[in-house]
Design a protein that fits this description.
This protein is mostly helical and 114 residues long. It has a domain of 79 residues. The protein has 4 helices and no strands. α1 packs antiparallel against α4. The chain starts with a helix and ends with a helix.
Amino acid sequence: MGISISSLVFILAIVRMLLKLWFVKGEKIKISETSGKRFYTWGGWILCLISLVILFNLDFSDMNIMRWFWLCFLIIASSFNAFAEWKYIRESKEHIISLVSLMIGTAYILLFMF
């Protein structure tokens, strides 16, 4: 499963890069440059902390539990990212990239890890 997760991270990084070239035109705006910087930073840290606590309390030898963890983590993290981008930098269409990468990541997990 370790190869599957690393492949997923690599695939999503390339997909996000290509989609940014295709969708995002003009000046690139970051959430950290808007009023949503605090919301995005705190939300990211809270999600990271909760996922680490859950991850270290799971049984690493049970592959079914780990598959569900990674699926839920991808859905929650990508959804939070898409929501923050939609709320604070709607005009840049970054939220569409997050939603497309969420769909690709979910399909990858369901096809190759289950």
